[in-house]
Amino acid sequence: MTLGDRQAPAAANPTLGGFELSRPAEREAVTAFRHRAAAFAAENGASPELVNDVALAVSEAATNAVKYAYGPDEVGSVDLSTTVEEGWLTLRVTDRGAGFGTGSSDGLGLGLMIIARLCDHLKIIQEGSGTQVLMRFVLR
Amino acid sequence: MTSEGPKGERSSTERFKRRAAAAEINGRQVNEAIEPRGRPEETAVFVCECGHLGCSETVELAIAEYEAVRTDFDRFLIVPGHEIEEVDQVVERRDSYFVVIKREPEARQMARASDERSP
What we know:
Radius of gyration of chain B: 14 Å
CATH architecture of chain A: 2-Layer Sandwich
Oligomer: heterodimer
Strand content of chain A: 25-35%
Number of helices of chain B: 3
Number of domains of chain B: 1
Structural class of chain A: alpha+beta
């Protein structure tokens, strides 16, 4: 059991080769997601360096969702889902907020830049309501 | 190319080139995500789209200038001096930024595959 599970037991569903996790968009989500992402990478054979990269990238994506996705009076959620397939680890951090480029974004680019440097493939999807940050890592 | 699995032998040079190309493409993803919905003459801060994994530099440009860089899937915005000889060819030199294109067909294909603006 991870720290994230102990803090908030809701909505942790296994998926084929991965899991899905949903949390309120609060700082605790960042910690929970980081721990679960690191465990997921390690369980699937990632090197210690890659485990750190995955944990940091997910932490940055979750931080962006917590800080920028919702207004101060909004109660939103942030989700983490993962899959592993053919030597790739895929992790998605999703919110249902306003999207980037619509409000204050101090620090947003830096967090995304860190993610961009860490993962092998990055896709940022902003369609409808919310943002999905899709990060893929070659298992090594 | 990004859907291609990592299986198969690659030389360290090939891996380096591919990793650098991927970093540049990821940087462009960031810029397109944070690009403000402002008027073209307004300025915004864009991240350097170079392939150096430790780079965190930014460039302030008019939105129209960035859009001029992004007229083709193969063109990337970098801070001057951040070009990687094995990966990039500089095609425009401005005071605050360079525009580079990919040298290798594989990197070009990666850039095309990732570019949702391409037809």
